[in-house]
Amino acid sequence: MSRRGRSASLPPADHSAPAVLDPVDDRVVHHRDRDGHVREFDFATLPVAEPMQRSLATLFGAVTEGWSSHGTSKGAFKNIRAFTKYLSECVKPPQDLEGLTAALVNGWWLQQKDRQGSRAAFRQVRSLLIEDARLQQGPVAEALTRRVPLLPRDQESYESAELGQIKLTALRIFRSARLRIEENTAHLHQWHEGAFSPDSPDGLLGEALDIIARTADVPRYSRGDVQQRYRRALGGNDAETLWKRLFLDRMEAVSLGVLLMAEFGWNLSVINVMPTPTAAPDFGGDGHPTYNIKVWKHKGKRFESENVADTGAGSPGRLITEALGATRFARALANDLAPGIDRFVGWRPLQRRETTDKSRRVIVGPIRFGLDGNDAAVWGKKTGTGSPFQRGRRTVVVERGEPSQHSLDTHERRYVLPDKRVQREAAPIVAAGAAAAVRTARRQVQLRARLVDQRSAEHGETATADCSGTEGGPAPLPNGGCGASFLLCLACENARVHADHHPRLVLLHQALVNARTVLPAPAWERRWGDAHARLDDLQRKVGPGAWQQARTRITDLDRTIVDNLLNGYLNP
């Protein structure tokens, strides 16, 4: 069993700082993310007048102070651009925010309201605009603060077998990589211990592995080929026989991410920024390490700690142990190049191309940390599964039956209730519960007619019992008669049932049982359920012997009366 605990803590100090306006051009905003990377947003490129550009840049610079990801600021700027494009196409575009009217806001809302993503864009831009004092009162404020509910979404988790197949695919890819790295790590350790002579094949392989560990590559000639000294020892010239001996590639890193998602329910953005789990210095009496894992809470902008124990094969903590081993050289190399870097999922791309877009991953020399949507999309395309993280996490959360990184209300409202799979699986459960409730209610339906030993000459005969009077009956008529169905006689305290009625009621009971086999259950329950329940009660009260004896006394008249009763001919 894994041991898990949770506590909230502030994130460690990082390089993030408030977004600032460019000192040269106040229409340019510089946003620094949590890793210290700066992205520039030029509001002069927006298709509105300069005063409007400056106002929007000022608002943007203020609101991005709390944003730690360039993904957030890029999305917000894209939404602002869409809003300004809408304004530019109006007959009289406003020159600044004081010219914005409720009619313009309402017109934009009509364009945005039909799609979920467009509604999210409206919410984000209006939260920016409402910070301006000029828009905080009057009709325009009312238009901006309108209620914007989520549209119903077709959301469906994987079937258990589907997610199981995705996990098997990820496990196969990651296990192969892990065993490869473990084998070469053992050889490198032996080389460090001096187990091989320097010029032997094993010695040259150990020397090459040492270089790979320190550089994520091997010495090459100027034209790019691996130097002859190491090519023979390594056995080839491709990534598999070179740097992949000690490093994960992108497919393998995403496979690890899929396994983490499937085991812990973490989404891709959490895995992307996760620091390296740390083991407690004392393994405890059982010798099993317990890891402290920092899980980033995006809404709360803090880390929460989860404690997970490695109790053996198949335990959640064992996956952490294996992941630490598979990423150890990537993390060590990155820390040598940029001390202080602390990220968990490290890997090397197949081609070491420089990139200026560091908004989604931490890049240190040849090492990439974290995973983004593009990585997941490539993995999904190559494996034929599609990107598994969003649906996969939904599946884990739904099957776990408890919140993960969110509140109970969010768990039920956003994950459980809208999920099509949950709705399908719940239907028979709800139906069974309703049927059980009906059965329980039926057991409360009892015979109210009185059992008597013999007929009284003062009582009138009905199709199912004798009647002692209509006063207090279920459906008295103005003329003194009774308007109730003969099936309701057994529910009336004025009714009297004696042995002469038993054969007819035994036959009626059997006819209702037969009708159940040919009618839909809801229709049968609605039409005959109560009558059948009262006859059941009568059977219990007269006893099995008397009931069976009455069966032998059924006459043709009883059959005619029951047939007419069931066909409605005897209903008053």
Task: Describe the protein.
The longest helix is centred in the N-terminal third of the chain and has 33 residues. Helix 3 packs antiparallel against helix 4, helix 6 crosses helix 11 and helix 7 crosses helix 8. With 572 residues, the chain is α+β, with helices and mostly antiparallel strands. It is elongated, with a radius of gyration of 38 Å. The strands form 4 sheets. The protein has a 4-stranded antiparallel sheet with strand order 1-7-6-5. A 4-stranded mixed sheet has the order 11-14-13-12, with no helix packed on it. It starts with 5 loop residues before the first strand and ends in a 6-residue tail after the last helix. The chain has 18 helices and 14 strands. A hairpin with a 4-residue loop joins strand 6 and strand 7. It is 48% helix and 9% strand.
What's the quick description here?
The chain is an alpha+beta fold.
- Using only C-alpha atoms, the radius of gyration works out to 38 Å
Task: Quote the beta fraction.
Answer: 5-15%
Q: Which stretches are poorly predicted, pLDDT < 50 over at least 5 residues?
A: 1-17
The order of strands across the largest sheet is 1-7-6-5
Largest sheet, in brief, is: 4 strands, antiparallel
Structural class: alpha+beta
Let me know the average pLDDT.
82
User: Could you tell me how far the N terminus lies from the C terminus, measured between alpha carbons in angstroms?
Assistant: 69 Å
Helices, by number, come to 18
> Helical percent range?
40-55%
Looking at the structure, what is the overall shape? elongated
